[in-house]
Amino acid sequence: xxxxxxINRIKPLKEGNFFCPKCNDQTAYRAKEVRRWFxxxxxxxxxxxxxxxxxxxxxxxGTYEMNVLDAKLNEDEQAFLENxxxxxxxxMLLLMMSDGHIDDAEVQTVIEVYAKLTDKTLGREDMLAQxxxxxxxxxxxxxxxxSIADVLNNDGKxxxxxxxxxxxxxxxxxxxAERETIIECAQIIGLARTTALEILEDPS
Length: 204
Prior knowledge:
Blueprint: E1 4-20, E2 25-40, E3 43-47, E4 52-57, E5 63-65, H1 75-97, H2 104-118, H3 124-136, H4 141-148, H5 154-168, H6 176-188, H7 193-201
Antiparallel strand pairs: 1-2, 2-3, 2-4, 4-5
């Protein structure tokens, strides 16, 4: 190991979703700050350059400058993003209400998962109002999933099932009936049972 020399120090900044130029799709990203330092025994002692922000796509591992997050979506891309966000939220709400009552832990999980996946804050009152709207529309979970199956790619479908799994486990445990419901939901939108089981093993 070299006693003296330059090293890169990496500091995580934030995570979210963006339009990846390489994937040509909405994907998750990790943003981080990279700064080059002169080190002594692997300890940074003197910065050699200003910190630089880097955005990394979690799907293709492509890296971009921070301004990629400011890229404007065209009308088709914006419509897709809005439909995706709506699909995530409504699927979680329909699962939450499928047992006939709304649990506080599930409500909080819906809010947290939605914020993590969309970078948007959803207040409790707004979420409950959307839940009432979904109920009034008469959607069933199965019918709703069938309606969105053709507009989501596999990554989008996996995120829908992942978000539903987190809601189902919000009370600290997942019943066998809930697991089977999520597996059935995955198959409705075109994911294999094995894929659903993988997500259920580690939905975080």
